[in-house]
Amino acid sequence: MRHCFALDLIDDAALIADYEARHAPGAVWPVVLDHIRAQGIESMEIWRTGDRMVMITEVADDYPRAVEAPAEIAEWETLMWRFQRALPHAAPGEKWVPMQRIFEFGDTQ
After folding, report:
1. Which residues pair with 18 in a beta bridge?
2. Which of 10, 58, 63, 96 has the CB geometry, 3.0–4.6 Å to 40, for a possible disulfide?
């Protein structure tokens, strides 16, 4: 199953470049990737245009799995908030806001 989420970055070219560098191949902390997998996320992509990001995930049937987050996850999330800003309609403390599919085209119809 696919899930899509949206989040904004602070509109600052230097911060956006730093954020992208921290997500370059091999740059994301291994403990973060392990935690993502443990939750049942099988694949993840983040796309950006300007300061808007979309995250696309493919998840296991039992997603989300209840797993304890290692301490480093809170450290990573705090670091990422340095670059990110919540969408105007996000709930308090909500980062990645789930998106609703409103159109589909393909072989499944």
Report:
1. none
2. 63
State the pTM of this model: 0.92
Contacts of 56 (CB under 8 A, 6+ apart): 2, 3, 4, 44, 45, 46, 47
Tokens linked to 20: 């992208």
Q: Fill in the DSSP letter of residue 43.
A: E
Are the CB atoms for 2 and 57 separated by under 8 Å?
A: yes
Assigned token pair, 15: 């911060």
**Residue 68 is encoded by which pair of tokens?**
């304890």
Angle between helices 71-81 and 13-22 (to 10 degrees): 150
Task: Give the pLDDT confidence of 22-65 residue by residue, as tens digits.
Answer: 999 999 999 999 999 999 999 999 999 999 999 999 999 999 99
Secondary structure class of 24 (helix, strand, coil): coil
